[in-house]
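Re: the 416-residue chain
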Amino acid sequence: MYDWANSGFGLVVITAVFPHYFIRSLLPLLPGSQTDHGLVLGSLVLPASAVSGLMNSLSMFLMAVCAPVLGAIADIRGWTRRLLIVSATAGSVAAMLMTLLGPGQWLAGALLFVVSNFCFGTSFTFYNAFLPRLAPPEKQGSLSGWGFAMGYIGGALLLIICLMMVRADPANTPLALGLSGVWWLLFSLPAFFLLPEYPGEGRERGSLLTAGFRRIGHTFRNIRQYRMLFLFLIAFLLYNDGVETVISMSPVFGTDVLKVSQEFLIIMILVIQFVAFLGAVAFGYLANRIGNKRVIEITLAVWVVVAALAFFVHTPTQFMWLGVMVGLVLGGVQAASRSLMALLAPPHMHNEAFGFFAISGKFASIMGPLMYAALATGMGPRWGIFSVLPFLVAGLVLLLLVREPRPDSSSAPPAP
C-alpha cells in the first residue's frame, strides 16, 4: 500500500501536473518571447527545462547526502518504520502546501518541490529495507514487482481524479497538487500501523548523527567484504541515472520541445502506468525464474533503444508510442533492481545498504538533469535527450560483472 500511496505524488507532482504548471504558470516569460518561459540571471538565460533540471538535481543531492546516514541510524536504533513515518509525513505535508501556490510564485513552488521530492526519495530507504525481511529470497522478485504494480494503479487513479479537476477548471491545478499529498498520507496509514518494527543493534556512543557517520565509515573500511554489493550499487548509480532522467525530464521535453498540452501529457502518462502494471507483474515473476540480473539486462537494452529513438520524435503520436515502450520495461528494471539489492544486502545492514541504494538511485540522478540542462542550454532542448545514453550503456556494461547470489529458501525470514 505504500507503493500505492506515494506513486500518486510521483505521478502528479514529479511527472505530470507540476512540471507543466511550474513552467506555464509559475515561471515568468523570457524577455521578448510570447511562449518560452524561464529565468534571466544576469547575462545567463535559463530555459524552463534547465530550471527544472536544477531543481531535480538539488533535491537528489540532498537525498544522496542524508539517506545512508539515516539508514545507518535506523539499523542502530531499529527505527525503520519510525523514519518511514517521519519522511512520508513531512513530504506529504509539503505537497499539501502546494495548494497555496499562485501565478508567478516560482520560488515557493521550487522550494516545496525540493522538500517534498527529498522526503519522497528518502522514505524509500526505509520502505525498501522491509523487502528482505518480509519475503524469502525466491519470492522477492514477484513481491517487488507487485509493489511497483500496485503503485502504477494507485498513481493512475489519482492522476485520473486530478485530470478531471484540471479539465473542469485549470485554476484547480494547485488543489490537484495538494490532493497528491493527502493521497500519499492517507494510503500510507496501513504501512504506518501494520508493518512491524524490527529491533536495532543497540546504542552506540556519541550522538546518533556521529554514530551514523561512524557506521558508514566502518562499512567503507570493510568494503572488500561487500564487493558485489558495491559493484552493483555503482552499476545502478549509472543506469538508474538514465532511467530517472527520462522519468523526470520527459514531461519537460514534451512541454518545452513538442509543445504538447497538459491534457495529452496526463493521458499519455496514464497509458504508461497501465502498461507498466503489466510489465512489473510479468517481469517480477520472470525474475523469480531467470534471475533479477538477467531481467535488468533485458530491460536496459530496451531503454537504450528508447533513448536513441527519442531524438527523432517530432509528433505527439510518436511520443505516445515511445511512452508505451518505456512502460513495458519501467517496472521491470525498478522491481528487479530492488530485489537484486535485497539479495546482495547483508542482514545486519539492510537500512544502511538501502541508504546506499538511495545514493546510487539519486546521487547520479543529479548528473542526468544537470547534463540535460547543460545540453538544452548550449545546443537546444532536443539535444538534452543524449544526456541519458552514456549512463544507460555504462551501467549495463558494469552490471555484467555482478554475480547474483542464488536464492536459498532456507534463509527465509521469520513471519512478522
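The chain has 15 helices and two strands.
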